[in-house]
Write a structure and sequence with these properties.
With 306 residues, the chain is an alpha/beta fold. It has twelve helices and eight strands.
């Protein structure tokens, strides 16, 4: 599943959803099965829709009932204000921490930040300003930023300088509000041609921006494809990592379905004292309720590292 398809899918998952509470799952055996996880794993809307129904509020309640203490929503910026507010209240009531949402329109096929184009930079900064309001509304601390496509007309050093300047200006907007944009490197196979691909590159950019408002989103799925050597690479860039996302490879499904030893990776993250959120940015390996239960059980299995 390509990231842009994942964003589109999650953004549409509540497109025709009413705000009334249907409590569609209605399964006492699941509601009593609250589990204590060692880390803050964050599901997305749609991940448990077969049990919880289509209403976002019911889905949030279902997540909380299963023991999840975080939630992330790529498409939150585009949701109605009334729904944002209702979701925020539900998260607050149920002890769920809000993770990332995508802060801006991502340029998948043409350069924007790498180009140095002043109009595109102004557009990006305007999205950042709008996202400050969204973050405050839903009690978010982090927002995802993807610098977009490479500019083949410019040498890499000039592109990097252009990206850094845009991020410095965005940081100046975010810093007074205590908010952080997290830069997400994306792998070459799913997203050919994007500017930001590697964790060392993201690390270098964050060091150059030199702001608490600009950090790394380390997506384990993407970096397994792009560079592998996961734990050493996370260790090397650890002081700039503020957010983590999850997906097994191949397939971008839940842990235990691919080659990544998530139990060891999660143990490393816990041992580092990480208190942030780990977004479950992946699909379900199986359909229907059986597949949703498989996701829950997979996280219980790989979280058992203490």
């Amino acid at each position: 599943m390509k990231r842009r398809d994942f964003i589109q899918k999650t953004a549409l998952s509540s497109g025709a959803i009413g705000l009334g509470g249907s409590m569609a799952y209605g399964m006492p055996e699941l509601r009593k099965a609250k589990h204590h996880f060692n880390l803050k794993y964050a599901p997305h809307l749609g991940m448990f829709q077969q049990h919880a129904g289509k209403d976002p509020i019911d889905q949030l309640n279902f997540m909380a009932d299963q023991g999840f203490t975080a939630f992330e929503d790529n498409g939150m910026r585009g949701r109605a204000v009334s729904l944002q507010e209702k979701m925020a209240k539900t998260m607050q009531d149920r002890g769920i921490e809000m993770g990332v949402f995508v802060a801006h329109e991502i340029y998948w096929k043409e350069p924007n930040l790498a180009s140095g184009d002043k109009d595109k930079r102004a557009e990006f900064l305007d999205y950042i300003r709008q996202s400050v309001d969204v973050a405050k509304r839903v009690n978010a601390k982090w927002m995802t930023v993807v610098p977009g496509h490479v500019d083949l007309r410019l040498r890499p050093g000039y592109q990097q300088a252009n990206v850094i300047e845009s991020l410095k200006q965005a940081s100046a907007i975010l810093e007074p509000h205590g908010l952080t944009m997290v830069l997400e490197p994306l792998n070459f196979r799913d997203h050919p041609g994007l500017f930001l691909t590697d964790s060392p590159q993201a690390y270098e950019i964050c060091k150059a921006v030199d702001s608490p408002a600009c950090k790394i989103l380390f997506d384990i799925y993407h970096q397994q494809i792009q560079e592998g050597n996961l734990i050493p690479n996370m260790e090397a860039s650890w002081d700039e990592i503020a957010y983590i996302q999850i997906g097994d490879n191949p397939g971008r499904k839940e842990p235990t379905t691919g080659e990544i030893n998530y139990r060891n990776v999660f143990k490393f993250i816990k041992d580092k004292g990480f208190n942030g959120i780990l977004g479950m940015e992946h699909g379900n390996s199986r359909p229907h309720k059986e597949g949703e239960l498989a996701v829950i059980n997979a996280y219980k299995e790989v979280d058992n590292f203490m």
